[in-house]
Write a structure and sequence with these properties.
It is built from 24 helices and no strands. By secondary structure, it is mostly helical.
């Protein structure tokens, strides 16, 4: 298996896409093992995509695109701006809150980066925020979006690790809200130092608040309906994605009346592109993952790690550092698909809850979209807002530190994340 990993890393270094690198490395494993039947490469590629639970991913991608096309984004932006207008750095705080609400709509940090860079970014710059600070705020607040259900990384982890999607979603809600608090604090500190004023000094009236809630009620209750539906057994993981699509269609056609036939066709086409990229990645990790299991790599690494330490905190911190490094070079979904079967047995052997570990791995892997050299979210934001990479790295420092402190906090005190799934599933 060592040669397979060497091939994989060399291909990544040469700039070969992650999915192709993974597929080639999987083929190499079958070539160098004479005992393997080469025809299995094809069957494993197809079988990797045949999990019923994976149906939730294309369904939620379609639902998220439909919700965005319904005009929900602009409504939520106005609502968040109203709630944060009296805070220091009010527009930056709007980004934090908008990303939190968008987590229940799109579940994609990359999509959130692109959306906020186009809608919120120019207004922040026009109101005196520096380009670098604007981009970093939008980028780092987008991390909340992947944590709030329905986050795609949580579904990938739950499927590959055979962990309850419902429990992951519930833990993701509490983790996402905690991350929101952490980022609001760091935005408040940095905005105060830069003298970024509130957008308004007028208090939010009950009338404004009521109107804002009623205008956005369908988006606000969406994640709650998902969690309640899963908890009460109304939907399985795959079925709740189908419900999300129906819900989004009803919102677009009847509640907001902004989804016409032309827009619907555009949404379908964009969703096909997004879904194809993810399914292609999942398929090509099939042969690679098979080799990992056959060579007992998880058991070997578990024994090696436990010989070093049996302290869950230290083991998790080592894993987080490894994930942060890998996230610099690989897409987060690929890291989850490749490493979950390897790392999950290690953390379970020291008593770490697999649901909690799902939050750790999903959150850590998504940070990679904001770090050089291949951070997709970073490049989207810097290109749209025309931010030099040097300025991005400099402005990122306090936010990166804040996210790292957040990770240390939840690892040290898992109940900060697990209180909600414990309460709901008690």
């Amino acid at each position: 298996m060592l040669w397979v990993f060497i091939v994989f890393l060399v291909l990544l270094f040469l700039g070969v896409p992650v999915a192709i690198s993974c597929g080639i490395a999987g083929v190499v494993y079958f070539i160098i093992n004479d005992s393997m039947i080469f025809n299995q490469v094809i069957s494993l590629t197809f079988s990797a995509t045949q999990s019923v639970s994976l149906l939730a991913i294309p369904m939620f991608i379609l639902a998220g695109n439909l919700m965005n096309a319904c005009g929900i984004t602009h409504r939520l932006l106005g609502f968040c701006g109203m709630l944060t207008r009296r805070m220091h750095g009010g527009m930056a705080q709007t980004s934090v809150l908008l990303s939190t609400f968008m987590g229940g709509v799109s579940g994609s940090s990359v999509a959130d980066c692109a959306m906020e860079s186009r809608i919120l970014g120019p207004n922040m710059i026009k109101n005196g925020y520096s380009r670098g600070y604007t981009g970093v705020v939008i980028g780092y607040t987008s991390l909340i979006t992947s944590t709030i259900p329905p986050g795609n990384n949580l579904i990938l982890y739950g499927t590959s690790g055979e962990v309850s999607i419902g429990r992951l979603f519930t833990a993701g809600l509490s983790a996402g809200l905690l991350m929101m608090v952490v980022l609001m604090v760091i935005v408040a500190i940095t905005s105060h130092r830069r003298n970024y004023k509130p957008t308004s000094i007028s208090r939010v009236t009950f009338h404004e608040l009521g109107n804002g809630i009623m205008e956005n009620i369908w988006a606000l209750i969406f994640p709650i309906i998902l969690l309640v539906g899963i908890r009460l057994g109304w939907f399985a993981a795959s079925e709740v994605g189908a419900f999300a699509c129906v819900y989004a269609l009803l919102c677009g056609v009847f509640a907001y009346r902004e989804l016409d036939w032309k827009t619907f066709c555009e949404v379908l086409w964009n969703s096909v592109i997004d879904i194809s990229a993810i399914v292609f990645l999942i398929a090509l990790t099939g042969p690679f993952g098979y080799g990992v299991a056959i060579d007992h790599l998880p058991q070997i690494l578990t024994s090696w790690m436990l010989n070093i330490t049996t302290n869950p905190f230290i083991i998790l911190m080592i894993i987080i550092v490894v994930l942060l490094i890998m996230g610099c070079f690989m897409e987060g979904g690929a890291v989850i698909l490749i490493l979950t079967p390897i790392l999950l047995p290690i953390v379970e052997s020291v008593g770490v809850d697999p649901v909690f570990f799902g939050i750790v791995i999903a959150t850590t892997c998504v940070i990679g979209i904001l770090t050089p050299p291949v951070g997709l979210g970073m490049y989207i934001v810097t290109n749209i807002l025309e931010i030099p990479l040097k300025e991005w790295v400099r402005e990122s420092a306090p936010f990166f530190v804040a996210i790292c402190l957040y990770m240390i906090l939840i690892v040290a005190f898992p109940n900060l994340v697990m209180w909600l799934p414990t309460l709901v599933y008690a």
